[in-house]
Amino acid sequence: MLIPRIIRLLNNFSIRQKQYSIQFSSLYRQINIENSFNNIHKNNQIQLELKSVNDTHVTLIINNKEYKYDWIFLRDSCQCHQCIDLSTKQKLYNTTDIPLTISPQQQTGIKILNNNILEIYWNQSLLNEKNSHIHRSLYLSTWLQTYSTLKNITRSRYNDRPFINWNRNHIQQINLHIQCNDYLYSDQKFYTALKYLHDYGLIFIDNVQGEFTVERLVERIGEIRHTFYGKTWDVRNIQQAINVAYTSQRLGLHMDLLYFEAPPGLQFLHSLVNNVNGGASYYVDAFRAAEILRQNDPEAFEILCSYPVTFHYRNAGRHYHFTRPTIVLNRYSLDNRIDHINYSPPFQAPFESDTSKSEFRKFIRAFQYFRDLIEDQNNQLELILEKDQCVIFQNRRILHARREFDPLSGERWLKGCYTDLDNFKDRLRIFQEKFEPISALEL
């Protein structure tokens, strides 16, 4: 009798030990939610206090300032292993599964642990859960601080870095050149390139040797964006060209592939040979032109933000078509900043709006004002893209163009590639976390 009792006790102890281990593991993971922000206040403890609760919100005092959090938001943000898959890091339920009447349990359902962890025992299960159970959520004070304001959220995502608008005199004072080997093999130099590309919209990579090295430059940032032009494409003067870029004609200021639903965010152009007479490249910061317009003529700015312009490509058995405004704002940003520009006269289709209305003429006047700004040579950076140089620029910000050249005077051969802006933003965040992690959030 004694031996079986001992065996049962040992088994029970083992089971409890596993349960405690699971509970501790879950608690440990919850206390480490948002690991990237855990060190923000390593030496400066955030003081968290519970002020009040009602049916829809909790009011917390974080370092002597009040902030409100909706119960549904908090339940939807739970990071425990029952809500977030440990491997994929993805949510295991839908926001719509949360009852509208969810709140902490009465009396002991909410408290502050160790002065910097909010603990909540919820009064209801999710709507799709078959078995009713009490769910526990934990929120670090650093997490609550991050989600206390839109400014902190923006900063925590490394989305608060400002753009630097430029004209010719300004950009000529900036060294935007990076050596190819530094770009490819030095993380610090690569991060410098990413910062310049974000701030100014373009950079130049020097000493890029080899016909397909441009692919390696792209893949340092992300996957190559394939289009009907191919994985890469050659900009050369050819007979029966399917694009004006493949001629020796002047190619005016434009952006590429605006007839796509999602035009590529970054363009790479590598100069393999360039010994012709003429053919200079020039670039314009369209964000600066738009900001001048916003400041000097708000009405013109607003109509460029709303009036539809259609772009298309109908050639070589292809028919692409998309309509979009000239200026697109990030309406969710703190400063209503410009998100991207759409400007590509060579690929404009006939307007598909009601041009009999007065808004059309208002748009044309605003469009001409914008045109005057970007065509002003004081706003243009012009240069010959030398052999073994590669320019990288933001296709939704920087307008690019080419002067006419004499095809009989030599050869001009550029190889191009695209990647998406999502890939660029991903690398910028990752390397900023590595080299310049956020030091503080504001309260």
Description:
Helix 7 packs across helix 12, helix 9 crosses helix 10 and helix 9 (286-296) packs across helix 11 (358-375). With 443 residues, the protein is an alpha+beta fold. The chain folds into 2 domains: 34-148, NE0471 N-terminal domain-like; 168-435, Double-stranded beta-helix. The protein contains 12 helices and 22 strands.
Quick synopsis:
30% of the residues lie in helices and 24% in strands. It contains 12 helices and 22 strands. Residues 13-44 have low confidence and may be disordered.
SSE topology:
Blueprint (H helix, E strand, L loop, with lengths): L1 H30 L16 E6 L3 E6 L2 E6 H6 L33 E4 L3 E5 L14 E5 H6 L3 H7 L11 H4 L5 E3 H6 L1 H14 L1 E5 L6 H9 L11 E3 L15 E4 L11 E9 L2 E2 L2 E5 H11 L1 H7 L4 E7 L2 E7 L2 E3 L8 E4 L16 H18 L4 E4 L6 E5 L3 E5 L2 E2 L5 E8 L1 H15 L8
